[in-house]
Amino acid sequence: MCHKGFRPFCKYRRTPCSSLIRLRSLVQIQVGPPTRPLAACAIDQAHLTETSDFVSFRIATVNGRSAQNKGFALFPRKIDGRYAALSRQDNENNYLMMSDDVRFWVETERIQEPERPWELMQLGNCGSPLETEAGWLVITHGVGPLRRYSLGAILLDAEDPLHVIGHLDEPLLEPNEGERDGYVPNVVYSCGSMIHGDKLVLPCGFSDVGAGIATVPLGDLLTRLTEK
């Protein structure tokens, strides 16, 4: 369910886990040449999986004192010649990590702390940042009272992602009455999103019993994030 502040322009479709969501006209996978290994690159805890063709894969260990964390999300390109990633070092706040070596991470800076009631217990990211003309769009998750999980968003400066341009004061997406009961109740969660045309496409799961796809006009969301 979209928060009331976004309900006028946020569309949402949900389905049980046993159903199949087809998005043939929507989902596009772009495979970069070998000279651009970040075209398809994901970190799972302490391992980095790389591919340039989705046929063969290379798995390598990720090292450094900042590599051991749950919410590791790479930026899709280098920033000022360095690799960048989001993380959650302390299970509570959102951090930015920078490195010259994609397999070795040491530097971390906190960029977001829980401030609002719906994210008071902890924050995290929902996948890699999305580059827009206004900056890096980051979908976040926040945990509030009764461990209610909601989705939010922040906007980071394109060349200095330590600078948070804006954030939503209210959830972008939160569980509605029909999504609150399940194996892990009172939760909406996402592991990634994409920009398609002028829309943000946000797949998400709810309470470990079903999945849905929300779409949000990108311009409206960026306007909210850049309002002073």
Notes on the structure:
The protein is mainly beta and 228 residues long. The chain has one domain: Tachylectin-2, Chain A, CATH 2.115.10.20. Helices cover 4% and strands 38% of the residues. It contains one helix and 17 strands. The protein has one helix at 218-226; strands at residues 11-16, 41-44, 47-50, 58-61, 73-74, 83-87, 94-99, 107-112, 122-125, 130-132, 135-143, 149-156, 164-167, 188-189, 194-196, 199-206, 210-217. Strands 1, 14, 15, 16 and 17 form a five-stranded antiparallel beta sheet that branches. The longest helix is centred in the C-terminal third of the chain and has 9 residues, at 218-226. It is globular and about 45 Å long. The two termini are 26 Å apart. The model is unreliable at 3-9 and 14-44 (pLDDT under 50).
